[in-house]
Amino acid sequence: MKTRRMIMLITAALAGAFCIAALFYVQIYAAYAAWNTPVVTEKTIPLPAERGRIFDRSGVLLADNAKDGGRYYPLNTAVHLLGTLNSKGEAESGAELAFDDRLSGKDGVRSLKYITCRGETYLSEDNTVAPTDGEDVYLTIDVKVQQCAEEILADAARQYEKGVDYDTAAPPSGSAGAIVVCDPRSGEILAMASAPDFSLTDYHKDYDEIVSAPDSPLLNRATQGLYRPGSVFKTVTAIAALSEGAIDSRTRFFCGGELWLGGDRFSCMNSHYSTDVVKALAVSCNVFFYRTALAAGIEPINRFGHLFGLGEQPNFELPTLTGQLTEPELFEKGGFTRGQLIQAAIGQAKTQCTPLQLAFLAAAIGDRGKRPDPSVLLRTADREGNTLYEHQPSAAAVITDKNDAFSLCIQGMVQSTVYTYGEYALSSLEKPAALKTGTPQSPGGYDSAAVGFYPADDPETAFCIMLENGANAKNAVKKLILSTQQ
Predict the structure, then answer these.
(1) Which of 22, 324, 367, 480 is buried most deeply by CB count within 10 Å?
(2) Does residue 441 contact residue 231 with C-beta atoms inside 8 Å?
């Protein structure tokens, strides 16, 4: 019995030893196999593309990449036009957003493959797809004109703080506003300024303060500010009525300083007595245009307004508001009266326009009916300066010049310049300018507007100056024109 138990114990011990030995062998073999089997690991390294730079039309640097990964703005000008990037470097507004597909480029990647075998690791593959840097964008703006426009708005704001002076020879004033300057031949924007503005350099640091500011510094008033055009719109009424034959160069209306209509009094700034269309534009006679509207009706006035781009969505790279004309459909049945008609004829009632639209109204008048599409993109280029894309001008509308309508309108606008005085006198310019002013009613009282072009006979520039709650926009015109001639 003892012998049998001993045999069983020995057998069990031998079996256990065998199992342990077998397990040990398996572990040793597995470790050897693992040591001897290649293991592949992969790693990818993103290679970010450099965002394209932004320049003015002459190659002045406006936006570049900072060392910290953000943007660098050497001049901190044209802030609404350039636009912003968020804290992640994503385009939010302005040219940064409009041309983001060109500016952002395409990121690259470096793909690495490693093999580990017999305790050693070595690189087996190294493939790189190089990043494609973003294109440099050259805007149409001229930085000299842009900075001049911004200086005009800043000076007007300082003058507004001192108090609005309505004397015709006083400096321009306005709590806020916008200026647009364009080339009427191509539609290229030479300047687009909006005030108040903000610092692009400090945009992220001051973000909460900027977005909560009551004067809306983020708003691009040039494209998204809606204003009554006031007497600026008399140019549309004149050309519409002349073109349709409702009036002609010999038509004269008497202005005694007011017009009574249905028991309501509609005023004029002065008594202009016997007045034709050229004089009416020069002195901005309300009564002449009241009577012109009664003769022509609202349909041709609004039809020409749309042809001039008012109440229309511009074909433009940046977001813009459409505005509206005083359409009878905007009033309840029976609400559109003759009183509303004559108010519409002088740019009041329900008419609302952006400064961009009004600048291109001036451009179309200056080019005798040819209205181009606006654009802020001149071209794009690679880092060596080789042009990759060049913007081609396009026509938005062509208005047929009938019955000398444009010539008569321009004559009136040229004569209007004699009402600028002293240091602001447009008569001191080398060539005649064309000007139409307006003092439209606004929620804050009155705005001050000036549109025109220079030179009057063959325009190289057209402009709109809009000052909120202020006066004498016309007295900024000479300085603005001179900046375009440098």
Answers:
(1) 480
(2) no
